[in-house]
Amino acid sequence: MLTQFAIQKARPAERSYKLADGNGLFLLVQPNGKKHWRFRYFFAQKENMLAFGSYPEVPLAQARRKRDQARGLLADGIDPGAKKRDDKIAAAHAARNTFGAVAEDYLDQLKENNRATTTLEKNIWLLNDLARPLHKRPIKQVSSAEILALLKKVEKSGRRETARRLRGAIGSVFRLAIATLRADIDPTFALRGALLQPMVTHRPAITNEADFGTLMTVIDEFDGWPTIRAGLQFLALTMTRPADVRYMRRPEVNFIKSVWSIPAERMKMRRSHDVPLSTQAIEVLRSVWDLSQGDGYVFPSIRAPRPLSEATFNVALRRLGYTKDEACAHGFRSSASTILNERGYNPDVIEAALAHEDEDKVRRAYNRATYWPERVKLMQTWADLIDGFKKQVLVA
Fold it and tell me: Structure pTM?
């Protein structure tokens, strides 16, 4: 049997030579001084050779353990060389099928299915940012316990709803993995009921006409980047969602017909939505039109030709003195809906203007066909009402 001293004392010769340790294990000493562990064995009446690494990276004791493991496989009728090749292939396969790789496939699938930009952005944030600790893990090895630990960490930060959405996003990745034969089970299924119920918080909105007039007056006086001021004004005038305004592109606007056509891929319900533009809305667009070119964003960021960030409008409202409990960008829709309903305008027309989904498909088709003239009139009325609210503030 070899000793540590004998291995260290071995010097290179003109030709490679072997130092036997017993039971098939030997050290191959190369002319360049390199020393490699080899295991000689017979399987199916054929001689085979298995490499165990180099010395000193693999010390004597470890080489012997590898030999004993190989001999154990031989005793069970398994070729250790073939098993080593199979294990390498399995490891390479597992490395390609990490959670991160499948998550990327899932995000690509969302893109190919033309999911809304906001939906895609939220899933990218959930899977690429919050779920990053799982990315390098072979997806078959990800357990319910480690997913729960990740979710609880998010939950304890106060983001209960985010934790529930993260569980749903991770579950979607696993369902894709199962469908593509890369996983056998969805470990998030066992976590149903494991998270706390989210605390329901309604988006703040100013529904008093005088207070809303004050808000719009303050926005008119905003001295920040012009596209932020114009974006807030346009948001209020059109009763649309903040993301629709942020991602609005020049080709979507028809100044002649006074219409803004939002493509289906950006709409929450996956249907294109035409927005009648009041004269005031047209005026807002023209005030920033020269700040972009070609098919660019109508309300570009100050730093680059990209859309305003998701937080931009709310940050501007905070600068104007409104707290997160008083007003938010999405609240403009509630303001318009509440005020117009209280004034007695047709609720169906208001719902159509807000692009809300009607559960009755026939009724939905009818509404889209018949309410366009009413919507055109309503949007101009709403813009005139806003002007009236602002005048009352100035008079007061």
Answer: 0.54
Catalytic residue of the set 135, 175, 356, 377:
356
Q: Is 36 a catalytic residue?
A: no
Choosing from 137, 152, 164, 268, which is the catalytic residue? 268
Q: How confident is residue 199, by pLDDT bands cut at 50, 70 and 90? A: low
Query: Pick the catalytic residue: 66, 67, 165, 241?
Result: 241
Kind plus residue range of the DSSP H or E element containing 245: helix 242-246
Whether 241 is catalytic: yes
Q: Catalytic: which of 71, 330, 364, 368? A: 330
Active site residue 363: no
DSSP per residue over 279-344, as a string? HHHHHHHHHHGGGS-TT-BSSB-SSSSSBPPTTHHHHHHHHTT--TTT--TTHHHHHHHHHHHHTT
Percent of the residues in the chain that have a pLDDT greater than 90, as a whole number? 68
Domains of the chain: 4-95 (3.30.160.390), 99-191 (1.10.150.130), 209-395 (1.10.443.10)
Tell which phi-psi region holds residue 156, choosing left (phi > 0), alpha (psi between -120 and 50) or beta.
alpha
What would the pLDDT profile of 289-325 be if each residue is shown by its tens digit? 998 888 999 999 887 778 888 899 999 999 999 998 8
- Catalytic pick from 167, 333, 375, 390? 333
17 is a catalytic site residue: no
Is there a catalytic annotation at residue 366?
yes
Asked if 330 is an active-site residue, the reply is yes
Judging by beta carbons within 10 Å of its beta carbon (0-12, 13-18, 19+), is residue 193 exposed, middle or buried?
A: exposed
